[in-house]
Amino acid sequence: MTTFSISVPVGAYHELMPTCLSSLASQKGPLQVALLDASGDPRVAALADGFAGLFAYRRHGPDAGQSAAIIEGWEKTGGEILGWLNADDFLFPGAIEKARAEFLSAADVDVVAGHSAICDEKGRMTGYHWAVAPPDENLRAGCVISQPSCFFRRDAYEKAGGLDRDLHYTMDWDLWLRLLESGARFRFIDEALSVVYWGAGTKTLGLNAARRRELFRLIEIHTPPGLRFRARRGFVLRAFLDELKPRSLSLFLEDRLRRKTPHVFGLGPRGAIDRNARLFWTHYDKAARARMRIETTGAGAVEVRAGFPDAAVRREGGAFIVDFQEPVPAGCVAEILLRRFGSEKARLVSCAWL
Hints:
Number of strands: 16
Largest sheet: 9 strands, mixed
């Protein structure tokens, strides 16, 4: 069977790292995981000891940066399919199996990508990575691939020239663009394959000088002249809205400035709920979970019901409580259905296991 090589670069310990490693340990089929730890934090080594059987390669100590660490992991493992997972991100159950099936279905598929859910620092779902879309020439105008949900053949990666060690913020988009230009064939899975953490310490939020230089350089090289202003504006607007305070003003401007609102499974930017939305959420806790709490704005205009597994839903204060008929074990995915009625706007605030 096709083997995957997944690099896990660690620059600092994160509270989601146990979930990251648990998600990798839950995947089925041949998988070689490389842990590249430059944190110097004893908590990383102690956690890794508890997952000792997971790693095909493990290194603790300084490195030359995130890109160099990712490359080191791939060089020390032998999988035909490559990917990487940051220590504060994690995979959905069955993500590797779904990607493997796509590669096995067609020998000319070089890159497989899917959707990502978004979580906060407490591991609560807050939405989906709404900018993700089936990749093709649209990659030239913006990064429509969510990196933890993307896997690619080693030979296509090498043909494209590999990961750029000198890039700190945009090594993923740079690689996708060079894969595109080298003739790689992309395939998209319309399912959530990973969960990405967006919050404090996320280096791709904001637009500091170093990230801006990398982004604008890629735009000058790869984006057609007629789309360059639009591409730059998109990154600047996103950073402005992410950093603007108070949040209420940021959300107000988000709604006013957007000409067209993209949605993934019925959720738009910052958790905006379309008429109908579906939440897919999982956990990797040792104990099964019997209850979930869903908080929204505009709760009076939102209806919540269980899709799978069976559950009863009740209102408790300003939130919805989902009581599952049977506790949901680790590595299972629950589906929750949201319906917005009337003209009132509503957003998902969080979806959390209790």
